[in-house]
Design goal:
Number of domains: 2
CATH class of the largest domain: Mainly Alpha
Distance between the termini: 26 Å
CATH topology of the largest domain: Four Helix Bundle (Hemerythrin (Met), subunit A)
Strand content: under 5%
Shape: globular
Radius of gyration: 19 Å
Helix content: 55-70%
Structural class: mainly alpha
CATH superfamily of the largest domain: GntR ligand-binding domain-like
Strand order of the largest sheet: 1-2
Order of helices and strands: HHHEEHHHHHH
Oligomer: single chain
Largest sheet: 2 strands, antiparallel
Length: about 230
């Protein structure tokens, strides 16, 4: 269920000749992305840069730049001179994005697992507990959020900026598409895979981490015509 609307504070920043600072663009980008992932903006819903600029207390320039970044990662789509809207990610597109994510995250593990610290293990343990609670209560938004947070702990460890950007980009498609599948995936299987990966992180066992990823790859993504 979508979270209640939260009050939006205006973003105060300096502008030079109408060009937004990157910090403002990033802030607007993150707020719009959060609204998409939390269900306040739904797939197919039209987005007005003018309305968003008024809501955030900024000019249209940083909003347009933020929307362009969102188009680049695939969660917003636009038709010239017609509309900008939240992307409609089909089940098949979600499944295809999962294949890409699995390949990229598998490449990440060889670097990340040996770098895991006790603080990372503690954070992942809490994320896994939160995920299990969300699954038990079938809170779909929380399931998606806690799962995303769990895996992002390892993504943050890589020094490969290109790999981090690629994973971050594709995971947003997976996260958005997973909320609108014709039926739920096997959350229990995903929970077991998380547990295996957590043990791998705790023991810095790269082979066990790859076993966890293989289990995730085997989880079926339900399609429209199965």
């Amino acid at each position: 269920m979508p979270e209640p609307d939260r009050p939006i504070r205006p973003i105060h920043a300096r502008f030079d000749a109408g060009i937004a600072t990157s910090k403002v663009v990033t802030t607007v980008f993150e707020r719009i992305l959060d609204s998409i992932h939390q269900g306040r903006l739904l797939p197919g819903e039209r987005i007005s840069d003018t309305s968003l600029a008024e809501e955030f207390g900024v000019s249209r320039t940083p909003v347009r730049e933020a929307l362009q970044r969102l188009r680049e990662i695939g969660v917003v789509e636009a038709s010239a001179s017609r509309f900008t809207r939240v992307a409609v990610v089909s089940p098949r597109e979600t499944a295809e994005a999962m294949v890409v994510w699995g390949a990229l995250f598998g490449a990440l593990l060889d670097e990340a697992i040996p770098l895991v610290t006790p603080d990372v293990v503690d954070a992942m343990t809490k994320d896994h507990e939160d995920f299990q609670e969300a699954v038990a209560k079938l809170r779909m938004q929380d399931i998606a959020t806690t799962n995303f947070t769990f895996f992002s702990r390892l993504t943050a460890l890589t020094s490969n900026d290109a790999l981090r950007r690629a994973i971050t980009s594709v995971v947003h498609i997976v996260r958005l598409g997973s909320l609108h599948l014709p039926e739920s995936i096997d959350f229990e299987a995903l929970s077991r895979a998380q547990s295996t990966l957590l043990n791998a992180a705790r023991t810095r066992d790269t082979a066990l981490a790859h076993d966890a990823m293989q289990a995730i790859r085997s989880i079926r993504i339900p399609l429209d015509h199965e």
